[in-house]
Structure formats: structure tokens, C-alpha cells
Amino acid sequence: MGKMEAAGGLAVTTGVDVNAAVERLRTEGVPAKVAAKDATLWGPEAAEEAAIRLGWVDTFVKSKELLAPLAKLRAELNEQGIDHIALAGMGGSSLAPEVISRTLDLGISILDTTDPGQILAELGEASLRRTAVVVSSKSGSTVETDSQRRAFEKAFEAIGITDHAGRFVFVTDPGSALEELATKQGSHLFLADATVGGRYSALTAFGLVPTALAGADAAELIEQAETFAATIGSEDDDPAVVLGAVIAAKPTITIADDGTGVVGLGDWAEQLIAESLGKDGKGTLPVVLEGPAAAGARGSDRVYATVGGSSTGLPSSGSSLAMPDVVVNGPLGAQFLAWELATAYAGYLIGIDPFNQPNVTESKNNTNRILADGLPDERPHAVDGAVEIYGSHSTTVAGALGELLTDADSETAYIAVLAYLDRIDDADVAKLRAELADRTGAPVTWGWGPRFLHSTGQFHKGGRQTGVFLQLTGEVEQDLEIPGRDYTFAGLQAAQAAGDRQALESRERPLVRLHLTDRKRGINQILHAVRELS
């Protein structure tokens, strides 16, 4: 590979020609201005938002204040026999903790879902008795997180734990409704850095509280970021500048773990890049791959990146097709800061405000309206076995998928699969991403609903309007009430799926919905159908 820059424990190596972009960033003093938190960098329209969203550049300094109280609380919980952490959070509140948990094998239960089956699986008595629940929401009003909190409260009471305030740990911004609730009921409270947006919050209380309580060495993550921060604007090697130029180089970036220690970083980077750069009809689409040799990694319209913990790590596959365009290796704390910096630099190069998210609330507003007015009256065009078909002229699943691939047959198209299902019990359906990628030259991205609404959901609505969408929904075997609400989790999930459909259909994008009347049978049927396609 060609260009390599290494500093602060992290190395970026790339064969993509980004010399001109790197030179522009350096000549125009962008890294130094980011380090100085210059809110004018991204233009006058972005300045007001950027002025209150640049705390992530050095938030690790403030995060040191969390270390002592977190260690104290963890010890107190362990003394009570509480040794498991469940995290109720969405988007930036859940994705960084999930990377840390997977990388360090902490076993945190991440609940960024409204699927009742996935939530019910966490409410068994044996598990609950040893569980503390971290409720994370920057605004304090996130509907998914609030619903999960209510479900846990009722579940604790059902097993006789009526004094459950001490089982809850709230992470939120100062002044939010969650801060008020924590104070009122006497729950544990950690206030996050209000100058950091959710997707840049990996090294704030949102990333560190649940993981430190589960046993992560938060001090080490902070130290890794602090070491890397010293490289910002370096006249010698500055890896984040090269990475930023790479992200901006092509319409799509595909990302895979390289097997050298960092696990699941792509899911976190996907949210960071898609929500930061997918707007104004442009931006870079991130696609998370299953592994280094996964289908759809390469293409003239995309850059293929691998990430890992080893400074020399390369994909183990012997296939030349698996060789990446860029390798990013280094410790997790440095990875977080490097990708955040790189995304801000890429926004500058592309001409996008990387701190707003103008289209994220659209599906939320649709959901709220549907919850108030009721689900739209929709009838399937056809029923094929255990699958109802909507939005297609075909009477078979294979035919509907074939139509989808035909719609994606252009140089700029991408396919997005949006699965409002249980990502644990229904995990096999995710094989569909690679199967579709193997049969088309288009990038294929996968999203579990509703979590993707907080990441690629912004890109789908605000980025380039070339997406072709396959939405998957399913019947619910056992629903779950949301205490204090007049809708259930199944009702909320259905409303979110319908609200997202309305947002996409309003843009006249191709959209097929496959509804599984029997989830297991339907998943097998869909996978079999796509494998029949040429």
C-alpha cells in the first residue's frame, strides 16, 4: 500500500491517492482550527451549531472526573450482587458502549430496539436480580429509551424489587427530564458533556458509564485518546488527516474488522459518518461488512477500509479481493478520536456541516402521528408462503427481490435493507445483506430498526437520493406493554416502520416491504429466494 502516517499509537495506511486533499487540509490549517474549536470552519450556516458541538475534541479531559465515582458505584453494585449491566439507549448512546463491550468481552446487554421479543429476553427473573440498568439519552426524552425504562421498572416490581431506584443509572445532559427524574427518585446520575453531540460522545459519560460499570478500564481508553490528541495538526505524521481525506474520496466507504482486536467499530463509525455527512443531497455512505472478505467490499465507487487493534494488522484472507484500500489500526480510544476528527475533516472537504442532522426527526414525527392516529390501512399485493408482499408488482418473494435489484441497476444506486425485527433471535436474516451484495454491483447496507434511524436513516433521507429500500417487518408472538402509555412495544415498532416508509415514499424512492407472518419460516424463505436469483 502507498501512503502511511502513524502517530499517537494509531496508523493509517492507504493506496488511495489523497495527496491533494491532505495538502488542502494542511495548507488551509484545518486540523489546527479543529483543535482550537473554530466553529467557522464549516461555513456561516454551520457556525451556530458547531459552536456548541466541538467539545469532543478534548472531552476526554473532562471525562477523567468520571473515573472515581464510577469505580465507587461499581464496587457498591457488586457488593449487592449486581454484576450485569443492561443498557437502554439509542444511536450515540448505545453504539460506542457496544464496541467497547464487544472488544473487551464485557457482556453488556444493549437494548437499542423496540422489538418486544428482544426486550422480553432481558426481563427474566434470574437475570434481573443481578442487573443494573443504565438509561442513556442526551435529550432525556428518547421514546425507545423511555419505554425500555418503564418496562424494566415494572419487571423489577413483578419479582418483588419495589425499591428499584438504586438499580437505575441515568446518563443525560444537564437540564433534561432524565436528570429531573433521577433527582426525584434517588437514582444514580451522571451528567454528560453538553458540548458534545450524540454521535461524537464515545469518550463522554455515554460511552464510559455503562462500560466502566461492566468492568472496562475507562482510564486506559481516555489515555489512548489523550495520546492521540497530541498528534492533531502535527507537521509530521497526522493519521486522522489522511483518514478524513479517504472518507471524502469516494461516494461510499465499506468497513470491516480485520481480526486484530477491535470488534464492531464499523457499526459505530457507520452512525458517525452517515449522520454527519449524509445531507444536502450528498455525503459518504458507510457500509458495514461481515468480515474482510465479505461481498460488496470493492467497487470503483467505494473505498474499502479495515480496522483493528494491531498496528500491522492486515486481513487474513489470501484473496486479493480482500486487500483493503485503507487500513486503520490502533487502540480503541485512539480509534474513536481519529474517526471523529476524520469525519469533521471530511465534512470540510465535501462542504457539509458535520454536526447537524436535519432529517432525523422526520421519521420520529411520522411515528408520533401514527401512534396518535393509528396505523395506515395497508393491504398486501400478494402473499407467498409466510411472507406478505407490499410495494411490488410481483406475486412471489423472488420476483419482488428481482424487481429491487432491477431498480438498483445504476452506477449511483445503493440498496438498504431495513429490518424491524429481533436482531438476536432473527439474526440469520442479516445474511441477506451479503447475498444481495453478491448478486449486484451496488453497495448494500444493513440496518436494524429502529437503531438505524439514528444513523443511516439520516443519509437515506438527506444524502444522495439513489437508495433502493427493502423493509422487513414481522408478526409478534408475544407483545409487551409499556406502562403509562396507550401503545405496546409491538405497536411502537409497527408505527416506527410505517413512519419510516412514509418518509422514504415521500421522496419517491423504490421501496418493497416483506412482512413475515412466521418469522423463522419467512426468513428461510427470503434467503432461499435471493439465492435463486442470478
Please, could you describe this protein's structure?
The longest helix has 19 residues, at 332-350. The model is unreliable at 313-321 (pLDDT under 50). The chain is globular and about 65 Å long. It has helices spanning 19-27, 30-35, 44-50, 59-63, 67-79, 95-104, 116-120, 125-128, 143-158, 177-185, 205-213, 218-229, 239-247, 265-277, 332-350, 360-373, 397-407, 431-438, 456-462, 489-505, 519-532, and strands at 3-7, 10-14, 84-88, 109-111, 131-137, 168-172, 188-191, 252-257, 285-288, 302-308, 326-329, 382-384, 387-390, 414-419, 444-448, 467-474, 511-516. The protein has 21 helices and 17 strands. It is 41% helix and 16% strand. The relative contact order is 0.14. α9 links the parallel β5 and β6. By secondary structure, it is an alpha/beta fold. A 6-stranded mixed sheet has the order 1-2-11-10-8-9. The chain has a 6-stranded mixed sheet with strand order 12-13-17-16-14-15, with helices on both faces. It folds into 3 domains: 3-29 and 233-350, no CATH class; 59-221, Rossmann fold (3-Layer(aba) Sandwich); 360-532, Rossmann fold, CATH 3.40.50.10490.
